[in-house]
Amino acid sequence: MKRCDWLNLNNLLYVDYHDNEWWVPVFDDNKLFEMLILEWAQAGLSWETVLNKRENYRLAFDYFNPTIIANYDESKELELLQNPWIIRNKLKIKSVIKNARAFLEIQKEFGSFSNYIWWFVWNKTIINNFEKLSDYQNKTEISDKISKDLKKRGMNFVGSTIIYAFMQATWMVNDHGQWCFKCKKTRSLNF
Fold it and tell me: What's the CA gap between 165 and 86, in Å, rounded?
């Protein structure tokens, strides 16, 4: 089977992610928050690196529960900074806590984070038709708009490139290449 060209076929975890997650729309707030945390962790690194550490992140960050994370104190921050199984970047860890608080405020305002984030794409997946790897983009006007709004709401590590990767991970954007076996399958879905 032909898959997207960016995929490392030697990493079965990555292949499984591509085949079973990277084309599924995400509306669950905890899953959306998980993907935000992982995209924040990815800043300056590869997605493969973060994906390989995802289970460790689940344990370290209380299964991505924003309510619990919003209440982390300084001792929890220190514990996370000493955890060798996650990316130990002080700014990223502090941002997860700060962003959890902003995430909860967005939930209160919009009823759910899902309502808020999917509104930017009119509750419908944007389907791209890339013919070659060089066609891929790393940000768009919509990711710029989301990034600006999240920053206004107090979030960090939400630059347009990170947000576009988040949009791909949650299927707000379908970027499977035309050559990928998932392309035809995902184009026939209507969410």
Answer: 20
Residues in the chain: 191
pLDDT in tens, 142-179: 999 999 999 999 999 999 999 999 998 998 988 766 76
Instruction: Provide the whole-model pTM.
Output: 0.88
Query: Which residue segment(s) compose the domain that 101 sits in?
Result: 12-187
In this structure, are residues 23 and 182 in contact, taking their beta carbons and an 8 Å threshold? yes
Could you tell me if residue 7 is inside a domain?
no
Q: Is 47 marked active-site?
A: yes
Q: Which amino acid belongs to residue 108?
A: K
> Which of the residues 22, 47, 57, 171 is marked catalytic?
47
Interval 100-112: pLDDT, tens: 999 999 999 999 9
Catalytic residue status for 118: no
Q: Active-site residue among 22, 23, 39, 57?
A: 39
Residue 39 annotated among the catalytic residues of the structure: yes
The tally of domains found in the chain comes to 1
Q: State the CATH number of the domain containing residue 179.
A: 1.10.340.30
